[in-house]
Amino acid sequence: MSITTLLAFTPWPAVSASILFILLVTALYLARGTAHQAISATANALAKGLRLASHSVAHAEQRLAARNREVLLAAGREAKERIVEREFTRVGDTVRKDLAGYPELHRRLSEAIIRMEEQQAKAVEVPPDVPGWAQAVKVVANIDARNAGADILSDIHKSMVKSHSEAMGAYRKSSGERHSLLRRMMPDWRLVTETLGHVAKSVES
């Protein structure tokens, strides 16, 4: 139905339009309560839907934030684990490299200590033997004074001098040998000192 047809129920279109307007306003006035209820129901439904949507968006945001936090923490843990793993690998390589030479160091130290102990045992000072003239003095003491003569005393003197010279020579010879043994111990002492210094430097680094 066209507008011209609607306005044709009176000979005057303006009057027809006025009548239709008045009827429309009257109908709307009479239906205002129902319209208000419909508008209120529509608004309430729309508000409820928007509230549900906002709650859903808020929950989704919280879940997304928690997920992002978990992802960041996992990435941080993986990065730290890789750093720690690399550090442990480096330390392990360093320890293996340092320990690779320890059997040789232990062998050298053991051999040096054994040589030093042997040379030290050889270098122990041995007191010289008691000269033979002590026995001669004892024999002279038991000889009868009437049979004693100057020749016996002269022989005793000669024996004492000879024994003293022999004892001093033997003592000097043994002292020289001991000093030579002690001098031969010096390289072993230096080896032990250098080896211990190398071990200490490896431990400190």
Structure notes:
The protein has helices spanning 3-6, 13-30, 32-100, 102-122, 133-142, 150-204. With 205 residues, the chain is an all-alpha fold. The protein has two domains: 31-96; 101-204. The longest helix has 69 residues, at 32-100. It starts with a helix and ends with a helix. The model has no long low-confidence stretch (mean pLDDT 76).
Core attributes:
205 residues; 6 helices; 2 domains; mainly alpha; rod-shaped; 0% strand; single chain; 86% helix
Topology diagram in text:
Elements (H helix, E strand, L loop, with lengths): L2 H4 L6 H18 L1 H69 L1 H21 L10 H10 L7 H55 L1
Structure, briefly:
This protein has 205 residues and is an all-alpha fold. The chain folds into 2 domains: 31-96; 101-204. It is built from 6 helices and no strands.
Mass-distribution shape = rod-shaped
Number of domains: 2
**SSE string, helices as H and strands as E:** HHHHHH
Give the helix level as a range of percent: over 70%
Name the average pLDDT: 76
**What's the Cα radius of gyration?**
62 Å
Query: Structural class, from helix and strand content?
Result: mainly alpha
How is the biggest beta sheet arranged? none
Distance from N terminus to C terminus (CA atoms, Å) equals 103 Å
Task: Report the total helices.
Answer: 6
Low-confidence stretches: none
Q: Kindly state the number of beta strands.
A: 0
Q: What proportion of the residues form beta strands (DSSP E)?
A: under 5%
